[in-house]
């Protein structure tokens, strides 16, 4: 996979002799020897970076044979040597990360899940401003990831200025070592991650190490801060073959991680996403203002409300849309489309993207566009709600029935789903149907059996079956309900389970 440029907004820094310059107030005789050495090393680092400025503008873009190529631009502007200096200075001047993450973490401790399959370390790394941001914002972004996709946090953290609670899974000692290096690299290079993101660690019982390897500062500061995705790809190549085999054989505990990330949030509301779901620009500020404007009367009338945020797939070649109007323009050109539209349309269909796109306003004030009125099983939107919503069932491991079962229980419990505008989220890349590996279908089959138990438990809790999920399979098929989705007779129980829950 080719390295991707990330859209990053950094303050412009230039030499200044005015009294407001941050350097003018520094008095050398007030600095310790360690500080002098640190400043000297920083100067050496910046000099080396400038000598290698070709890396900053090495990525070029070709729009050959693409319709309307003028609208297709890189994800971020090409960095010139001057802007490269600004970027490095902006990130380095406030960087005080001098040790690896998880330093001092005792792996003999932690806590177990209910079946003692995984061990968790809550707040293994705490964002420097995480407590303050949790008080400032009424909403927290909760997310989860394996090692392969953590680079997405760079763009997420630059678009989301509130607190971020991230649960990360490491499969064994070698992967934990790589995770330490990469998270240390991210915190060293990106102030937004260092300040806003708190990390929670999850380890499998049968591959849980008892101690951490020693990591020195040079192990993570040697990498290029302008290439987070390429750096991760290089590190992943160092993962042992036996770990790769274990990962294929054993399911990824995404529902465990979602619950851990949710509970790590300290704000009143939680926006639960997957790590590669990128919020629109200034998302947290607009959402926070909307949530604070909700009157107590509205909350009493609709005590159980989940606010759905539309998610789109975006062509890799275009710039991140500036606003909803820009996103709709890309959608009209076929450069953006609803998430999973080609892979499995029922994943997001009930959001009613057509109605959302016609609801256009000149201002950027966040509001409710419309209610979800055609809820179907297998619907799994990304939503904002208090953490009092039902937890994600941790019996569902790997792929199939993970997010959609939790959303289904919310629906049965009486939650109203309301679609927000003009906020949106983006997943990079237009997805197409691909043959599923055998291991993924095996996980679907196991989870399908758990779902037969789960839906009966939901009925026992709420004494309701609004989608007639408890009807005999033959009757479900005749009426087009059940595991294939309400009103979708063509999907069938088996096909829907295999195609649904495509994002995990």
Description:
- With 504 residues, the chain is α/β, with parallel strands linked by helices.
- The chain contains 18 helices and 14 strands.
- A hairpin with a 5-residue loop joins strand 1 (111-112) and strand 2.
- Helix 5 packs antiparallel against helix 8 and helix 15 (403-413) runs parallel beside helix 16 (438-462).
- The two termini are 21 Å apart.
Q: What is the beta-strand fraction?
A: 5-15%
Instruction: Give the biggest sheet.
Output: 10 strands, mixed
- Radius of gyration over all CA atoms, rounded: 24 Å
**Mean residue pLDDT:** 80
First-to-last CA distance: 21 Å
Biggest sheet: strands side by side, in what order? 1-2-5-4-3-6-12-8-13-11
**Which structural category fits the helices and strands?**
alpha/beta
Multimer state: single chain
Give the proportion of residues in helices. 25-40%
